[in-house]
## 1
Amino acid sequence: MNEELLTKGFNGSILVAHNDTVVYENYFGKVDLRKNDPITENTAIHLASTGKTLTAVAVLQMIQDGKLSLEDSLGKFFPGFPYTGTTVRMLLSHHSGLPNYLYFIDDSMWDKTKNVTNQDVLGLLFSHKPNAYFSPGAKYGYSNTNFVLLALIIEKLSGEKYPEYMKEHFFNPLGMYNTFVFTSNDSANATPSFNYNNHIWQPDFLDRTYGDKNIYSTPLDLFRWSR
């Protein structure tokens, strides 16, 4: 850590724990590289695809509670779903073969001045039917689409929006008070991300979906989650 991170301009948070004990915790750099506020234990940073693991736990808890099954077909939640044979298990394990929306949404099907939502991704699968990568269950193939759909299933079964559901059922009960699912209401306050060259990462039209990303958290909150 000292040799490979801290001597090369690392900006972020580090926590190391053994079992239930924190053995190292430290914070480096600034919340916004263009300003002077330091990163602290309360600075929530975008987890990116690590957020998929939190979505997975929410789905598995619903399975534990008998609200759905790993073998449920997506047609059960989205009648007429055009990729037959796709199950909840396949979404969770990236064996669905569903095309990654980050790559199939192009100028021919979307006005890039408008943000894509989870519901939009589902609608484009119905209306444009982009080619699957492979037959359902045939092999592993990482696709963000899987977890966008899992968030929609959570919403359908709970009657709540995914950000509120995660807050009510997980973040607040676990004391993860610096953790949230990003929505447009958080745009002014969320910790910005930066490229390797310290230029700010500008969100684009694909950066408003959730389930596959857009959870912000801290090392201490993730330690609570882990325990």
## 2
Amino acid sequence: MRVVKYNDIVKSIRDMIIYSTTHLAPDMLEALKKAYENEKSEVSKAVLKQLLENAEIAAENYKPLCQDTGLAIDFVKVGQDLRVEGGTL
């Protein structure tokens, strides 16, 4: 039987949520940079620049990219050969 510590599960989920709300996916970040470089409109270019600056600040300071980062809902399947030690899911 495999034993997993409750605190390890909590830490992993916490770290995943913090990372996903503070870092853009690399392909998204590259797409924003490319859009900024190719944009002709000064207003649109300013908006893209602000998005890139916000992404940099969020990643450096581990602050959410925006105030509406959503709500995480996790579904966990636990088989009969697993025991969670120190807490319950």
## 3
Amino acid sequence: VRRALGEQGTTPPATAEPPTLAAIQEAVCTVGGLTRQELLSPRRSARVVRSRQLAMYLARELTPLTLTEIARGFDRDHTTVLHAVRSVSARLEPGSETAETVHRVRAALGREQPDQSLKPTSPTPGPQRSGS
């Protein structure tokens, strides 16, 4: 189609399929220097908690999963996911460590180019979905 439209030199668009919850967890672990086992553990160290919250936030932002479905993937309940989304949203100031980490994870997932400037993310979760 690109050849027919004369768009040979353009880069392919970002994948239309949303990432899986496991892919988001793995990307957060890679960027955060954790194992997936640590991320899913009941540990409450600041490093683990912030990474877990970030993974829950990105799952909510990048997938069509409900809060309950995301919670199941972390062996938590939906209120924990809601708290994580709100907590990460509150820390997403431009240039903040949280914003930089979100940018790196999105780049690892192929959702944005590593050299793109940070775009502020909406501080509120997306539209309410059933099953929350």
## 4
Amino acid sequence: LMLEANLGIRISDILKLRLSDIIRDGDRYRLSITEQKTGKARVFTVPFALYQFIRCYCLDNGIAATDIIFPITERAVQKQLRIVCDYLGIPGVSTHSFRKYYATEIYKNNNYDIALVQKLLQHGSPAVTQRYIGIEPERVEKAILGHTNLL
């Protein structure tokens, strides 16, 4: 889930991930995948700290570079997440919530650049991305309220 929240890739793609899929490219690390859901190719930078976290996880757990890092099913992840969220009293959380979190944070931290988020998520249109992150109505409401304060 941490990888989903920090990379924006779907849980189905994370569960196929191998350490060897992350390639050193000069002074950065790069991940190249074909998204299981869409069949689209996606290449992006993996922040060094995240790569180090994944690498240490693999070393600590005896996972070889060519082994699948998380040999579990999506259903098993959902089940454990549900147990934790029920315990904490947090309703309505799924694995996909972490991808949406990623999208929303990128949007807010990059001057509300919807085109950037659209590109990162590989959505077909900005309208799809706006509905996906669900933040546009909040901005509209804030703009309206801010305007009425000028009176």
